[in-house]
Amino acid sequence: MKSKLLRKGFPFLITVFALQATYSQTLETKIDSVITTVFKDKEGPGGVFLVAKDGKPIYRKAYGKANLELDVAMKPENVFQIGSMTKQFTAFGILILQEQGKLQVHDAISKYITEYPNGNSITIHQLLTHTSGIKDFTKMKSIMSIAKKDLTPEELVDFFKDEPVDFQPGEQFEYNNSGYVVLGYIIELVSGESYEDFIGQQIFQKVGMDNSRYASDRDIVKNRAYGYHNRGEFSNKMYVSLSIPYASGSLMSSVDDMLKWQEAINKNRLVSKNTIHNVFTKYTLNNGEQFTYGYGWHLKDIDGIPTREHGGSIFGFKSMGVYVPSLDIYVIGFSNCDCNSPTKVTKDIASFVINEKLKN
Question: What is the pTM of this model?
Fold first, then answer.
């Protein structure tokens, strides 16, 4: 009797597995088609994309070449410069120090950098939320005069600190790399460690992000993806000292490590649940107007579903990550040519996966 029931149930199980396989293939095929609208050149620079649901990858694939000169194919394990996605780690560095009782986000920056102009009126919170009003050094015409120089954090801050402010603290939201440079310098002053060492020990080592680090063009980096421009033809990326993007954009990572990072945030592994709430809060300006940036993330939505997003762009590389808290969906995309942006691709994938999961 039991064997008859098993035999009757067997075709049903086959059907279920077949449907699951078909769904998986359909999902993969549709994601492939979204990515190849931009990453279509198999012989040019490429990218890596990962989609995860409930912390588990459901899509992980590489496109194009990691190195054009050596004709090396891209692979999912490749390590990229992530540009402004660095700001997530800088923000967490500040919050780790806050939980250690070494600073408070509502402290004036003059408490740590005593001679900073108007420092009594600018808070760490305003640096984190891009509402400080200080000049963004990447928009200064003189930026190229320091681009290839190895500067200390203090020298980098000195480069822009005396520039006229764009607005008074708290009056506007305006995305600003200088604010995150100042945050990196504060991390060093308060911790007594270099930014590189602090982030490496307090975040990367604790999370198990073994392929993440402060970027270097000199060191041997296992699985490095090389960066390119396309200005009529492909060329190696322009050299810029990585002391210049610093805490606003000088980290490297892989898509697998970034998933570990997202899981560490979800599980409150580095800071408390209350602090995580503060990271993803939409704050207000002096006039009460709300803006859509927390601490290191844009707080937006896709198809009406709230998301946490951030991208990055640095010579030779672009990156984009989208997390959907309500569905625990994470989509991350890296490109090793600043000619190919993963931003729209990543958002389109997130939109597709959101709608697929809502249907099922």
Answer: 0.92
